[in-house]
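Entry 14. Structure prediction run on the chain below.
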Amino acid sequence: MALRKKVGAVMVVGAGIGGMRAAADLAESGMRVYLVEALPAIGGIVSQLGFMFPTHDCVLCRGTGEHGYGCTRPSITPKLLDHDLHPNIQVMTTTQIVSVSGEPGSFQVRVRHEPRYVDVRRCINCDACAQVCPVELPSTYQAGLATRKAAYKVAPRSVPDAYVIDRGDYCGPCLKCQEVCPTHAIDLSQQPWEEDLEVGAIILSVGYRLYDPSAAQEYGYGRFPNVLTSMQYERLASRSGPTEGIPQRPSDGQLPKKIAWLQCIGSRDQIHPYCSSICCMYTTKEAVLAKQRIPEVEAKVFMMDERAFSKEYNAYYEQARNLWGIQYIRCRVSEIKEDPRTRDLYLGYHDDQGRLRYEKFDMVVLAVGSEPPPAAVALADQL
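Output returned:
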C-alpha cells in the first residue's frame, strides 16, 4: 500500500488568542496555515478586553514595543502587528467547517464561506454605510451596552480592517449602504460558497463562552440595570468602550461610589462544578481599574476563596489589598434587592459572625465563569 504524501499545511479552527498564537507559531516554522473563524473578525473574547492581569498591558499585543494604552487590535506578535498578517497565514472569517475526511497527514476539509457583503480590499473605513443604515442592533462587542448598525465594524481596529453587513431578517432591501459606498466595496448580491482544502493536521481552538447569569434570578441580572456582567464592566473600563474608560452606572450615568464584585457566578456550583480559573484574577484587575479611574470609589469583592495560581498572581492580589485598598469578604451573596426609586442595590449575605446583613451598593459586577460553546460540541461530532 502506497503511503500518502504528507501535506505541509495546517488548519486552525478558531481565531481567538489561542488560535492566533498557534497560527503565528506554525507560520514562523514555515507551515502554511488556514486560520478559520466563524465571526467576521479575529480576536475572540480577548479582543473585548482593554487590559490584562497582572501587568495591565494591552491584552492582545503583549510583548510588542508598539502597543498603546487601551489598544484593542487583535495582534499578538510583532509580525502580525506590523503587517496585519504573516505571509504564511490565510485568514478565513465568516467561515465554518462543513465536512472532514482523510487521515492524519492528509485531511480533506470542506469549508463554507458566508458572505460579508464588503470587499475588504476596497473598504476604506469611511463609515458612510453605517451612517445611512436604518437598522440598529445591540452591539456584541460592547456587551449590549451600546448599539450598532447592520452595516458595522466589529471593533475599532479589527482584523480584517473593514466593515461587514449583517443581513438578518431585519435588513430590508433598501440598498442604501451599497449606493452610498464611495469605493463600490459593498455587494449585497454575494452568496455563500464552499471550498475544499487539503491539510496535514487540524487544530481546534474553539475557545469558550461566558456564563449567562440571567437564569440566576437571585442576582437580578437583566432586571436591575446596575447589575452587570464582568464583560460589561470590561467594556466600561476600556478606552474603546461606550463610556471611554470611565465606569458609569447604566441607570443614570453617574460615577459609582461603591461597587461590589460577586465571584463564582456560573462556577463551582451544582451545574458547573469546576473552577473557571480566570474569575478571581480578572475581578482583582477590574477592582484595581475602578480605583485607578475613580480613586474615591469603595471596591468590595465577595468570594468563596481567592485562587491566585502563581506567585505573580498572588503578589498582584496582595497589591490590590494593601496598595489599592480592595476589600475581600469571604461569603456567598444570597440575593440582591433594588430600590426602584434610586436604583441602588442591596446585597444580602451572612458575615463572618453568621449574621444576615444587607449592604447598599451603587453597582454590582457578576464575575461570570466560562463554559464550552455549543459549536464546539457540534464540531467534535463532525471530527
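The chain has eight helices and 21 strands.
Filed with the rest of this week's runs.
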